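Supplementary Note 3. Input sequence used for the single-chain structure prediction.
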Amino acid sequence: MKWFLTTVICCLAITLNANNEKIIGKWYGAVDIYGNILRLEFDITANNGTLSANMISVDQGGVSIPVSSITYSHEELKLAIENIGFSYEGKLQSDSIVGDMQQQGMRFPLILKQKYIEKKIALRPQNPVKPYPYKEEFVNITNGDVTLAGTLTLPQSNKPVPAVILISGSGAQNRDEELMEHKPFLVIADYLTRHGIAVLRYDDRGFGESTGDFATATTTDFASDATAALNYLKTRQEINLNQLGSIGHSEGGIIAPMVAAADKSVAFIVLLAGTGVPGDSIIIMQADLLSEAMGIPAAQREAARNFNRSIYAMAKNGEDTNAIATHLESYFDKESAMTQAKMLTTPWFKEFLNYDPAPILEQVSCRVLALNGTKDLQVPYKENLEAIEAALKRGGNSNYQIHAIEGLNHLFQHSTTGHPNEYSLIEETIAPEVLEIITTFILEK
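The predicted structure, written as discrete structure tokens, is reproduced below.
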């Protein structure tokens, strides 16, 4: 469960009118999401009488992904990115577009100007600096008609070494799982490789340098990609095939057991904030914990929980987009309700809501390490670690380790509150004790 604003892009042609020239060009803004300042860039162009737009989340990898709708009329700009429930409405006022963005039901002010916003360079002391004391190789992994672009780091060794693939959380992620200038997968890969473990990390399908369509992909599709990455490692003579496994963060912690249950040659899996309860339960708990951290009264949180349960039940039962949008109109305006409804009925969201990880965990026979931070507000540690352990026990797997690490948030940073508004403010990318626990577990015989 990455924090909800991921790098996204929308484009849709509309008929130009005489005033549309005012809106053409690059527009820049910064949105404050509970203390996390994220810079956004919109590139609006015209071609043969039509408008199109790209949006880039500058501080989340900066990749431009081609979007769903743009309209400009009577000085009002409207953008929507349906597959993630994003929308923006603003009015042109002199040299600025003044408005609000919405995502997943939350609204934030966003002013756009045609001047690039510089940002103070954040301190990220754990990011490794070249030259590295190991080999770094850029690779391509084929999975049907999808090509995954990745980086393989190999320790200096005269014999085959243990190896892992890194599987990212939800939302389009690059191979470093980059978020707010943190690069947790780069830090993990560097640490493990320095300790004698080969690491393969890759851009999600349809993102970065990988091909494919991210918008239509499901968790099952991402599991297929992870399987292809593991199969690629099996072709490398540098790898010890008896010590081959995966590390999955958040949604990646759902995917790693899926791959291991299907491939008994997998020697181990590491679940970083992996889930043990069904998807709809995760989302409801996440929203409730975040609301509580924001000081929302208990009665309002209970009302929101009940409403969310009804909405998710409709999506799980296959209700159509219009029916869900009508139900959402009790909380949102008509246009926002439809945007939210379209997100809820995307292939990924429908599969996630219905997915229960427990039956797959029961089929996992390899070694398992499950870690959570006690201040994780996105994947609550107690409910999920207990469910993971219970499922492993039911399946007869006693070769596992479960750790709730005090004071760590969803990104495994030492945190004061665990709220996502701290992610960008914390200089630490990942707690050193987590890196040590993972390394020790992988190297155990």
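Residues 279-353 form one domain. Residues 167 and 248 are 5 Å apart (CA to CA).
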